């Protein structure tokens, strides 16, 4: 009985060296499948290969990687300006609806991020955030999320904003993603509801939406795990035709979610997710 060799399965799963960080996470999960830390049956190997492929895809997306990277959050210095982002500006304010607010923008980019903390109700809000023309990755980091790439830009600056908000360890109980305008999430809701216009979204697995992916990346690195989620707020339905002037709606996207010009997509709603802090 030979012990499972990482190099062998990396080759078999067609992973590249850049994704080795994700592979490490996979092997930690693979050990759970094994007895005495050895994979002794062919079906176990098949499970691990499947797991590796899934995490490889997540690594390529750069926004859905699972597993806390030790030191990543603690090594982010809110006073440091990473290379390529030297024109960063932070404005602190108070939003009567969402609480203390940090707006992070850049002189030479259109992208910006707004995050809030409601200390009374323990709610951290992903308010507005548009990456626009910003680079997708912050490479100038001490501890990367993906080796050779760095940390996804949205994740990096949200973690940095959490530090600027001086959030205490374990303070957050709920994460709110406000005014969702994510095309993939809108398409997902259309798909799982069969294109019907509904007002009760309790049956939808909202934690499976693309919007939850980047939120989970941030909260995992900050030391939290997601427990449950629900759609809140008063969203609105708009047709694909109405949305076209404001969104880049491709033929591929239309085919992926089986959409027509008259298909109605739900947007401008909130997602609220209960989180739990994992003690060190």
Structure notes:
- The chain is α+β, with helices and mostly antiparallel strands and 280 residues long.
- It is built from eight helices and eleven strands.
- It has helices at residues 6-12, 20-33, 42-61, 153-164, 183-192, 210-221, 240-243, 251-256; strands at 88-95, 99-106, 112-118, 123-130, 137-138, 151-152, 174-177, 224-232, 236-239, 264-267, 270-277.
- The strands form three sheets. The chain has a seven-stranded mixed sheet with strand order 1-2-3-4-7-11-8, covered by helices on one side. The chain has a two-stranded antiparallel ribbon with strand order 5-6.
- Helix 2 runs antiparallel to helix 3 (42-61) and helix 4 (153-164) crosses helix 6.
- It is globular.
- Mean pLDDT is 83; it is low at 1-21, 32-42 and 56-65.
Distance between the termini: 36 Å
Based on CA atoms alone, the radius of gyration comes out at 20 Å
Fraction of residues in β-strands: 15-25%
Separate helix tally: 8
Helical/strand content category: alpha+beta
How do you describe this structure in short?
The protein is an alpha+beta fold.
In terms of topology, how is this protein built?
Layout: H1 6-12, H2 20-33, H3 42-61, E1 88-95, E2 99-106, E3 112-118, E4 123-130, E5 137-138, E6 151-152, H4 153-164, E7 174-177, H5 183-192, H6 210-221, E8 224-232, E9 236-239, H7 240-243, H8 251-256, E10 264-267, E11 270-277
Helix pairs in contact: 2-3, 4-6
Key descriptive features of the protein:
single chain; 280 residues; alpha+beta; 7-stranded mixed beta sheet; two-stranded antiparallel sheet; 11 strands; 23% strand; globular
């Amino acid at each position: 009985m030979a012990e499972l060799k990482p190099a062998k399965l990396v080759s078999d799963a067609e992973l590249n060296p850049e994704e080795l960080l994700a592979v490490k996470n996979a092997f930690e999960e693979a050990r759970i499948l094994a007895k005495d830390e050895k994979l002794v049956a062919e079906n176990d190997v098949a499970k691990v290969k499947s797991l590796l492929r899934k995490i490889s895809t997540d690594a390529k997306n750069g926004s859905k990687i699972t597993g806390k990277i030790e030191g990543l959050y603690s090594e982010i210095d809110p006073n440091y300006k990473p290379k390529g982002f030297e024109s960063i500006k932070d404005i602190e304010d108070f939003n009567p609806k969402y609480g203390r607010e940090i707006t992070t923008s850049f002189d030479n980019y259109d992208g910006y991020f707004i995050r809030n903390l409601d200390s009374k109700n323990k709610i951290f809000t992903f308010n507005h955030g548009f990456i626009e023309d910003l680079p997708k990755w912050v490479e100038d980091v001490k501890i990367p999320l993906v080796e050779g790439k760095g940390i996804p830009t949205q994740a990096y600056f949200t973690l940095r904003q959490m530090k600027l908000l001086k959030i205490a360890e374990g303070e957050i109980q709920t994460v709110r993603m406000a005014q969702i305008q994510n095309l993939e999430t809108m398409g997902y809701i259309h798909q799982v509801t069969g294109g019907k216009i509904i007002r009760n979204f309790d049956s939808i697995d909202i934690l499976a939406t693309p919007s939850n992916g980047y939120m989970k990346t941030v909260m995992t690195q900050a030391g939290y795990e997601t427990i449950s989620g629900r759609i809140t707020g008063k969203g609105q339905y708009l047709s694909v035709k109405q949305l076209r002037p404001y969104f880049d709606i491709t033929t591929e996207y239309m085919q992926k979610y089986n959409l027509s010009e008259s298909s109605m997509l739900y947007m401008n709603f909130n997602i609220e997710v209960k989180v739990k802090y994992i003690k060190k």
